[in-house]
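Lab notebook: predicted structure, single chain.

Context: the supervisor wants predicted structures on file for every construct in the current expression panel, including those that have not yet been purified. This is the next one on the list. No modifications to the sequence; it matches the entry in the shared construct table.
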Amino acid sequence: MCNYCRRNLPNLCEHIIPLGIEEDGGFAEYVRLSECCTYRVADDLPAEIAMFAEPLACMMNGVKKLCVQPGESVLVLGAGPIGLMMVQLMKASGASPVIVSETSTIRRGIALESGADIVVDPQNESLKEIVAENTQLGPDHVLDMTGGLFGQAVELVRKGGQILLFGVNASAATEIAQSRITQKEITVLGTWLANASFPAAISILESNLLPLERLVTHRCSLEELEEMILLLRQGKAVKILVDPIK
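Prediction complete. Output recorded below exactly as produced.
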């Protein structure tokens, strides 16, 4: 057990090996795991909803750091599957308005279905102007779900606001004037994986609080997976349900 695990921070474990990232097994018919990595779900919880437990648990780890209050404004940068889940969670938390910036047409549409108040295509619209019109001071919270929009988040968030860096893009290198963070008194939060947040995530799934079924745009077998990944890269899919025994 490392020092982080002793501090009850298993997501920061010095020996962690993320499955499907540093260890094969993300797309396999069978996967062997330690029982300490498993959590029981209700027998009547559909597999199509239970599959959201892991990303939702990761989101809960970040959301509990934000402490979003009803009526506070949120800007979500990037509406991939987890970004869309975040939109649903922010609306369920009472955030208003929830603004989404996304280049994909299909994902912008699902963002509206997921409860977003305003959806922006940053390639053809001025995100800065739309945010200013609808928040006056700027968003209370800006969530970078892409891993490469930190600079944009710093410029858009209001003075005294919060930024949550969720997305991971190891190749992104953003040049930022540190003085902007200092002068605006911005709080910058990082979040990584889940940390004692699976029980809360499962409770949310079992309560049917979020309309997660709207995010599943495609279903496929393992043999069709390469084709589905291509659709994801092209922004033509959102959440893909892979059936390993189909």
